[in-house]
């Protein structure tokens, strides 16, 4: 491992096969923790390449638990996180809106690593426990068209890496690979990164991993979500083609708002914000969610344009369908919890 650390510290990019070898060493319990810390920090300083990200994603997914589901057009809208913008849980809220609009959502998420509240933290605050068995995860997906996969439950080899990431306390390549390692096979995806210079490479990774259609966004102000605060950089992957484009909130009929208008708090505060949105409270939080959900519906092929996607996302909320999805998942979680207590 020290050989890889030295090479990366010198600014050398690893070939795909070399990164596969280095990734397997990271998951080897015999590899010293400090060597893994040094490797991850060096990669971050050098800045990761598409081949390095794709190689780690393939290794990490090979170690994940197998989830047997029917072949459908499942979608994830998990971003990389680590953007430091301290916003509320936009992608988690958007997942319910997407499901309310008819998309089949398999949302991959984790607890906070470099934010005040991660996806799993806010789900618990909403009343949804995250320790579903694989059978329960599949049952929820088939019953409600949405499910949540808590990363440590489906990536058992990540326990040690998780502790190392906490020790580093800053984004690493594992932020980049998180959205790429959902154990449920995905045909479509909407994901965000906070590196506008890496959107094309990240879209190429999605192509390497077999996505049929996907959108990568790097938001204004360094967000890993589409932002109301200015120009957002996108790449659309469609049938193998990579198509860059840019978009502002105004382009889809939404109002400009600074990132400060959507700052988040702890999990309890963010859960309250999400419920307020689903109850129809308009403003920057609402607009941010429909913007991102609208892009997701376009990525999923349910909307012919992003503008149409924003309309469908708005309807998902104002019709009560997004809230119904949230309440249905909460009810499912409570039912599972009651069965566990009974046992």
Automatic annotation (TrEMBL):
This is Anthranilate phosphoribosyltransferase. Mg(2+) 2 binds at residues 224-225. The gene is trpD. Its EC number is 2.4.2.18. Binds 2 magnesium ions per monomer. 5-phospho-alpha-D-ribose 1-diphosphate binds at residues 79, 82-83, 87, 89-92, 107-115, 119. Anthranilate 1 binds at residues 79, 110. It is an enzyme of class 2 (transferase). Belongs to the anthranilate phosphoribosyltransferase family. Catalyzes the transfer of the phosphoribosyl group of 5-phosphorylribose-1-pyrophosphate (PRPP) to anthranilate to yield N-(5'-phosphoribosyl)-anthranilate (PRA). The lineage of its organism: Bacteria, Bacillati, Bacillota, Bacilli, Bacillales. Homodimer.
């Amino acid at each position: 491992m020290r050989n890889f650390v030295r090479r990366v510290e010198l600014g050398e990019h690893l070939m795909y096969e070399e990164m596969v070898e280095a990734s397997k060493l990271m998951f080897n319990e015999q590899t010293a923790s400090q060597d893994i810390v040094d490797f991850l920090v060096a990669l971050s300083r050098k800045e990761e390449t598409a081949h390095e990200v794709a190689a780690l994603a393939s290794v990490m997914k090979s170690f994940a638990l197998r989830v047997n589901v029917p072949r459908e057009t499942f979608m994830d809208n998990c971003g990389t996180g680590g953007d430091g913008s301290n916003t509320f849980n936009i992608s988690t809220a958007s997942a319910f809106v997407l499901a309310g609009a008819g998309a089949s959502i398999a949302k991959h998420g984790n607890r906070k690593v470099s934010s005040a509240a991660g996806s799993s933290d806010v789900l618990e605050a909403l009343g949804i426990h995250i320790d579903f068995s694989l059978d329960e995860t599949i049952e929820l997906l088939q019953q409600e068209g949405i499910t949540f996969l808590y990363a440590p439950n489906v990536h058992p080899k990540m326990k040690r890496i998780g502790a190392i990431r906490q020790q580093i306390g800053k984004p690493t390549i594992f932020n980049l690979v998180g959205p790429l390692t959902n154990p449920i096979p995905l045909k479509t995806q909407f994901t965000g990164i906070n590196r506008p210079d890496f959107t094309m490479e990240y879209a190429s990774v999605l192509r390497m991993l077999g996505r049929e259609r996907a959108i990568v966004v790097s938001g204004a102000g360094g967000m890993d979500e589409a932002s109301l605060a200015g120009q957002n950089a996108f790449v659309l992957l469609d049938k193998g083609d990579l198509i860059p484009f840019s978009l502002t909130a105004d382009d889809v009929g939404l109002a400009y708002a600074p990132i400060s208008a959507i700052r988040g708090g702890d999990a309890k505060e963010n859960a309250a914000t999400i419920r307020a949105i689903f109850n129809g409270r308009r403003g920057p939080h609402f607009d941010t969610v429909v913007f991102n959900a609208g892009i997701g519906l376009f990525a999923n092929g349910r909307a012919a344009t992003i503008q149409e996607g924003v309309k469908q996302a708005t309807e998902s909320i104002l019709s009560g369908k997004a809230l119904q999805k949230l309440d249905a998942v909460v009810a499912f979680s409570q039912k599972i919890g009651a069965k566990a207590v009974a046992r």
